[in-house]
Design goal:
The longest helix is centred in the C-terminal third of the chain and has 37 residues. Helices cover 50% and strands 10% of the residues. The chain has seven helices and four strands. The protein has a two-stranded parallel sheet with strand order 1-4. It is mainly alpha-helical.
């Protein structure tokens, strides 16, 4: 829906995980350009996406699960320039058109809500700057706990694992570190 500051939320997530002066990337069918975009950004935000065709969906799937590209180095006959990446991708938009089920399987949805009060960019940046140290500390605490419980959670989920198994173990470990009940997050993930 309009008016739920989807772009602003994505920008704040990016600022926390992968700060940059250019938070949004261009959604293009040029494989070489997309490879460079994924290579240069850990978190890639494609803003106001209205449609994703099968080819772009496949490109996003490969970037999320791990991909790469190899190009010949200019002015050489046989030298290659290689890129390898596995990236977090944020898509914002009103329509949910994912192109194919593979991308839908790699997608987490989150609920947006109407905004009671709109702020200027400057006000938002000030508030984010004041919250950033505590938020980043919380993220690191959750990751630390998750890393400590990962092996145990993996063994508990062994017979329940499905497609995207590694991700399932991680989100269950993270969910528990955040205080969710055992299997609550994993159950929501596999539905």
């Amino acid at each position: 829906r309009q008016g739920t500051i989807k772009s602003g939320r994505a920008k704040a997530i990016r600022a926390l995980i992968d700060p940059t002066s250019t938070p949004f990337q261009r959604f293009t069918k040029d494989d070489k350009q997309m490879a460079q975009t994924f290579d240069h950004n850990y978190v890639c935000i494609f803003d106001n996406v209205s449609y994703i065709d099968g080819e772009m969906s496949d490109s996003l799937c490969r970037a999320i699960t791990g991909d790469g590209a190899s190009n010949r180095v200019l002015y050489t006959d046989d030298d290659d320039f290689n890129r390898a990446y596995r990236r977090a991708v944020l898509l914002t938009g009103i329509n949910e058109s994912y192109g194919n089920p593979d991308l839908a399987d790699r997608t987490l949805h989150y609920e947006t809500f109407d905004v009671d009060e709109y702020l200027t960019e400057h006000e938002v940046e000030e508030r984010l700057s004041s919250l950033m140290p505590k938020a980043l500390g919380s993220v690191f605490d959750i990751i630390s706990v998750s890393m400590g419980t990962y092996q145990t959670v993996r063994e508990e989920l062994r017979s329940k694992l499905t497609r995207m198994a590694d991700f399932g173990v991680w989100i269950e470990s993270i969910g528990r570190a955040m205080g969710y009940e055992s299997f609550e997050v994993f159950t929501a993930f596999i539905k």
